[in-house]
Amino acid sequence: MDDVVTAYFRFYAELNNFLPPAQRQRRVAHTCSRDASVKHMIEALGVPHTEVDLILVDGAPVDFSHRLHDRESVSVYPCFTGIDAATLPRLRPLPPERFIADAHLGQLAKNLRMLGFDVLYRNDYSDAAVARISAEENRIVLTRDRDLLIRKDIVYGCYLHAISCDAQIAEVIGRFDLAPLVRAFSRCLNCNGVLRTVEKTAVEHRVPHHSRQFYERFYECEDCAQVYWEGSHVERMRRRVAQMLGAAGISAGG
């Protein structure tokens, strides 16, 4: 039929996790309409476009808008880390270092904030709200929902293959090369605002009496005005930070 073509697809590395077992790690023929874009076919096969960093058609790089022709060979690669980005014909610019987590990832959002990363989160975010905010504010969507990442208005996203929170943190830090950007205890755990040092006299009326007696260093969130101080809980939080960084392969001092 003139309106149908057959293209041969091969997906690499973790992209195979989105495919049926019989289609993994091999070249597989797929039929599609003659005017189908390579992006449409990649997502029709189950791989969100946010997880793809390089597409080669018959060995030459193409973008998502490429229209497929009969008998073309399509090689699809995941997001690369640990190599010189300038040598790759990436499908999109390097992403911002700002995130929005879907409604199921509250613990991840809180822990990333503890490490100093800008992560929006609310437990009542709808998928539509996550996609809209991501597009409006140029944020990377963090999710385990493949269907969410297929929304066309989402440019940057990260499908989390890991289940445990520490493994997810390691996945995010590794994928976006965030290790040099860790600034623990620089953000509000409640609202994501930036913390600033404040004089004790400016906030002591909002601090419990025993804390006013024993502590001198205080911080205030620039957005919600939550007051923080280095109480007995800080040592526990430092151990938590060391645990998260260790899981990501980063020394606590690095």
Automatic annotation (TrEMBL):
It comes from the Bacteria. InterPro entries: Mut7-C_RNAse_dom, Ub_Mut7C. Residues 98-240 form the Mut7-C RNAse domain. Pfam families: Mut7-C, Ub-Mut7C. Residues 5-83 form the Ubiquitin Mut7-C domain. This is Twitching motility protein PilT. It comes from Noviherbaspirillum autotrophicum.
